[in-house]
Amino acid sequence: MEENVKTDTSGPGYGTYILVWLALISLTCLTVAVAGFNLAALTVVVALIIAVVKSSLVVNIFMHIRFEDRIFKIFLSVAGVVLFVIFALTFADVFFRK
Amino acid sequence: MSEIASKPEVLHVKHLHKDEKGAKIGMWLFLFTELLLFTGLFLLYAAYRYVYSADFHRAGFETHTLIGAVNTIILLTSSLTVALSIAAIERGKKWISATFLGITILCGLFFLVNKYFEWSSEIGRGLYPGSPKLLNDTNGINLFFGLYYTMTGLHGLHVVVGIIVLTFMLVFVLRGKISSEDPVKLENAGLYWHLVDIIWIFLFPLFYLIN
């Protein structure tokens, strides 16, 4: 009960949100700048890594996951693992098809 | 927080009627289904990009990188303002919360206006599914634009729904139905808006930055 009260009302202040927003904007500029370089196959990898960093900032801070009960983190991990398996199995099919 | 925590009896009464944690878990489960919906499309994109990488590369030159980047910044900013709106209502600042919510809705509308100009320009150049120009082109180009319109279109639909939901939330805030005592409706609407933002974070590099 006590713990519920805490997770429901405590969260980061305005300042934290603005810092995260600045980081997100910087990462957007970075991903546009990096796209200008010719990194061949690495281009999409770098772009996706930046996208994953950006979305983890949104999920952890904007969506409060960092400050929620453990059950939310478990749910999210299960969903993440399921998505990973779906992608891995599909790629295992696509990449090794003749 | 300490003020509320020091009054457990108040919360106890509230807890009999409301289950904020349950409401949030329900919202997250819904978000997972949304994620799965888009995952199917991302899988298609990945598979076809692997098979038709040269065509996807060529098609990538046709999308407007600048409009895509501006829309990314608009959506990221709207995510900030909805987060600030929730922080404000939790602190009992009704008008600050309503103002930030209004800015969020405006950002969503700006996003759609940009999308309108973007799509108009592409359709004007004969780049739309089933257009004579595309039908004479390769399969890979057709798949790229098919996925482009489907994925950004479905995302755009989510933005429209998000704007409608947030407009209701704004009315609730103004009428006092969402308050520091009971902010969960706004929090859940915010979660939905952030998910729309996250999907765009992935769409942007995949459709606008592959040239």
Detailed description of the structure:
The complex is a heterodimer of chains A (98) and B (211). The model of chain A is unreliable at 1-9 (pLDDT under 50). Chain A starts with a helix and ends with a helix. In chain A, α2 packs antiparallel against α3. Chain A has 98 residues and is mainly alpha-helical. Chain A has 4 helices and no strands. Chain B has a domain at 69-211: Cytochrome c oxidase, subunit III, four-helix bundle (Four Helix Bundle (Hemerythrin (Met), subunit A), Up-down Bundle). Chain B has 9 helices and no strands. Chain B has helices spanning 2-5, 8-17, 20-51, 53-59, 65-90, 94-124, 132-135, 139-175, 184-208. The radius of gyration of chain B is 21 Å and the shape is elongated. The relative contact order of chain B is 0.16. At the A-B interface, α1, α2, α3 and α4 of A face α2, α3, α5 and α9 of B.
Question: What is this entry, summarized?
Answer:
Chain A is flat and about 55 Å long. Chain A is built from four helices and no strands.
